[in-house]
Amino acid sequence: MRAVAVAKPTGSPELMRLPVPEPGPGEVLVKVVAAGLNPVDWKLADRARDGVAEAVYPLIYGVDFAGKVAALGPGVSKFNVGDAVFGQPAPAAVGAYGTYAEYVVAAEDGVLALAPDALPLPLAAALPTAGMAALSILDVGGVEAAQTLLLVGAAGGVGSFVTQLAASRDVRVVAVTRGVGELLMGELGAADTVDAKAGPPVDALREAYPDGVDALVDLVSPPEAFAEYATLVSDGGVAISAIRSADVESLARRGVEGVNFVVEPNGHLLARLAAEVSAGRVTVQLGAQVPLADAPDAVARGRAGKAARGKTVILV
């Protein structure tokens, strides 16, 4: 099969010919239609290179996919050959079952679900990592209708899903972006948008929301900037960091719950995400679709912060 992988720890991703993997007990073989591009793809490769994570080489890139079940391993009962599915590969050493490939192995009891009927498979491939994170963040935050959520990094992959899901629950979303305007964020459901490029956002937000906000979800800020945003959270609220920037003890002293969020992907969460899509509460903001042969260039653009706005998917 064709796959984009690195041959050795110091290598760069390239298009290769590799053997088709075989599903074991409780696993399915999926013919990949598209793979989602995420920063975690190269971060996992970097961790493997540095010896932080167990890996196999050639190391195939990618953690998100959508496709059709091509074969069943022994004992599989939840899926059938021909089912349209999306999700993430079976647990294994980094690179063993990457998704930038024509085939991938997934566990039927793992991060795998039937793809939403309303969504073409290339768009479904953009959902798993960012969509599950967004849904899980809102579960942790417990924000309710009529409450105000301050969302920093709102225009990115996770942020766009958080905006849509929160707005569908009648939460007032205040989006902080960099260069993404009110019109686009309003289309996603944001009630208010603050462009961080226009000046210090905390000052503008404090003036606009003198009573504070009920929750903060910050997807991008380092500790010092996160702490500034957290001063806007009212007593009894919650401040969530997606990059471990929350000083939980300091926040607790002033009556705010601090959370350093880590998503735990699973099939149930993925099925809930599919239901949100089917109900029309989530759409994919697609940035680019690139063929498998161009995936190494897409990875390089992503590493350099030059990826297209919206999700990039790799057509296999």
What this model shows, in words?
- 47% of the residues are buried.
- The N and C termini lie close together (11 Å).
- The radius of gyration is 20 Å and the shape is globular.
- Strands 3, 5, 6, 7, 8, 15 and 16 form a seven-stranded mixed beta sheet that branches. Strands 11-10-9-12-13-14 form a six-stranded parallel beta sheet, sandwiched between helices. The protein has a three-stranded antiparallel beta sheet with strand order 2-1-4, with no helix packed on it.
- It has two domains: 2-127 and 284-315, Quinone Oxidoreductase, Chain A, domain 1; 130-260, NAD(P)-binding Rossmann-like Domain (Rossmann fold), CATH 3.40.50.720.
- It has 316 residues and is of the alpha/beta class.
- It contains ten helices and 16 strands.
Tell me briefly what this model is:
The chain has 10 helices and 16 strands.
Features of the shown structure:
single chain; 316 residues; alpha/beta; Quinone Oxidoreductase, Chain A, domain 1; Rossmann fold; 7-stranded mixed beta sheet; 6-stranded parallel beta sheet; 29% helix; globular
